[in-house]
Amino acid sequence: MVMHTLALHLKEIQGKSLLLAHSGGVDSCVLAHVLLQNKMPFSVAHCNFQLRAKASNEDSEFVKKWCAAHKIPFHSHSFDTELYKEKFKKGTQEAARELRYQWFNHLMEMEGFEVLLTAHHLNDQLETFLLNATRGTGISGLLGIPQTQKIIRPLASISKKEILSYASHHNIQWREDASNQTNVYLRNQIRHRVVAPLEEFKPEALENFKVTLKHLSEAEKFIGIQLDGLKSVIFKKQHDTFSIAIQELTKLNPLNFCLHHWFAPLGFDAKEVQKLLHALPGKQLFGTSHRLIRDRDYLLLTPLSEENLEEFPFDLEQPNHKLPIALEWNDVDVPVRDQWEANEAFLDKDLLKTPLSIRKYKEGDYFCPTGMKGKKLLSKFFKDEKYSLLEKERQWLLCSKDKIVWVLGRRCDRRFIANARTENKLLMRLSE
User: Fold this and answer.
1) For residue 326, which of 306, 309, 343 has the smallest C-alpha distance?
2) Which region among 7-11, 292-296, 417-421 has the lowest average model confidence (pLDDT)?
3) Which of 21, 167, 172, 307 has the most Cβ atoms closer than 10 angstroms to its Cβ?
4) CA-CA distance, 282 to 428, in Å (whole number)?
5) Is residue 403 classed as helix, strand or coil in its secondary structure?
6) Residue 109: its pLDDT value, please?
7) How sure is the predictor about 348, in pLDDT bands with cuts at 50, 70 and 90?
8) Per-residue model confidence (pLDDT) at position 306
9) Alpha carbon distance 312, 343 (integer Å)
10) Whole-number Å distance between alpha carbons of 132 and 144
11) How many Å apart are CA 103 and CA 423, to the nearest integer?
């Protein structure tokens, strides 16, 4: 049964460059044997976490010798797991998991492997289901150990009993990890005190669990399709930013469920996003790849990027291709007009101190807006013009020394604009 089931799964990875995560335990030994039986070329990656002193090194040697005997390319790496735990404040199992997948990803990239194979089985799936259920996870957490196009788990529907039976039938040798028999870790406690008694009391439990996983997977897929359709209506994209109408979000029921589906993958907590709906404009949250800003009537979702606080100096007499915006300028001899387009600035060239520069807003900036008397703080100008936080951050300023000449695309400083007496007129234009 095991061979037949695995052969079906292995069709998906036929012809691909395979890397097998091999611990030396019975699960990975069985998977390695099946790959050999199916004449599928693969390489092995072995992790030595140095947590069991001599036994860890003996595991490494066991896997190395097995690979040599079967002419399988062997890769290994030793980790200072204890140091990593202390440095990043992780538990042992979490630290080991992060270390191995970091190395697997690096190895796959460097060596060109297309697929990583792991020997997680059905019992592992049930343990993960129970673990995540105790953590208050959503549907995705109840689907067991995740699988992607690059990480395949061929044994995911095979029970531990079937694996042991297969190993016994084929006289497969393996290494036993003594720590698996202890109850030091919560996963081990679930394995020994919950799953094992459940299998004994209800032998069909694991097979029924497979059906449950299938139902959950179908439910997640259906819900995902519906939520993605709803998202396409509520999330309005302009350039790299999504505008999300707060009024529309507050109509959703259940709101927290929808927020979790949309924002959790970006590193946001759904409850914090819900609080943001009632926060003052300007409040923001930071995820792993994006930030979420509370604007007046919208949430603004934008990718994280390094703040650009540089100044970009340039010479009016020299062509410059390093400016962050498309800015053109020409000496002109045209009559002065009362009004110009917002993307144009008609300036007195003699009043400009070179080099000019392009920069972003700094606290305390002020200018003397055309059409007004006196000076005005730029922060007050932004407020009066109803700038969003993103608009403030994206607004470029044309400066002459320490004076603002032009809030680009919005308003000039009257001290620098050309008039009827101006001899050297300069027309600057902001292109799209």
Assistant:
1) 343
2) 7-11
3) 21
4) 32
5) strand
6) 94
7) very high
8) 53
9) 19
10) 8
11) 67
